[in-house]
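Re: weekly structure request thread

Next one in the queue (256 aa):
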Amino acid sequence: MDELFLSYIHGDSILYRLDPRTKLVTLMVISILVLQTFTFPCLGVFIIFFILLAHLSGVSTGILIRSIKPMLIFFTFIFLMHLFLTKGTPIFQIGLVHPTFEGLTTGTIITARFVLLILFASLLTATTRPTMITNGIERLLRPLPLKRFGLSSFDIATMMSLSIRFVPVLLNTARQIRYAQISRCLDIRHNMFRGVSTTITPMIRESLQTADELAIAMESRCYQGNFRTSLFELKMRSADWVVLCGISGLAVLSYI
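Done, posted below.
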């Protein structure tokens, strides 16, 4: 795929060798800290931190940045909503349209938050195999009393892992449908409503077909969601404890 969105990239660096539980906990802590950021200097610190992690991972920063391309419409919408709907000092005014300086600041900060969240999540999925993400989520959820609700940690971990795995698959399907439309001289830029309708229908059909094939594949392998062993047993190493101590210290310092 041209734009790798939440996809795994083969590599062998220190981030690849970390336990998936360590990376999942680190991602959760960083996400909480990012969502509580309200100033540009703090955003700059997280940007530098992301660049440092990307360098340590061995994954190209350009590839990770291109991975947010499918979310550009969402980011643009959030920025424009704050730019035009936040009250304050107008930058300029044309009729009822009056973007404000306060909206510019708020929109930039909030949009930057979401961009950072996607970038850190992309870094996790780029350096962790889907099976290892499933194992990590399952081990983190295992102590919870989920059986009272008729669930198991394996079920939730599998659902979350499949959701992450199918995001790039669906994007690739949408790209193939778009190329097929262009080859038949149907350009959605000329007729947006018709283009969207002709894209959604095959997307839904393809999604249902893929889900059906996945269910058949899981049933054929006798998947039941009960406790089962794993080919790759998780084991915390010294590097994992160092990372967890470091991220815990960062979280404590942010609240002091």
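The chain has a mean pLDDT of 83. Residues 153-183 form the longest helix (31 residues).
Next request, please.
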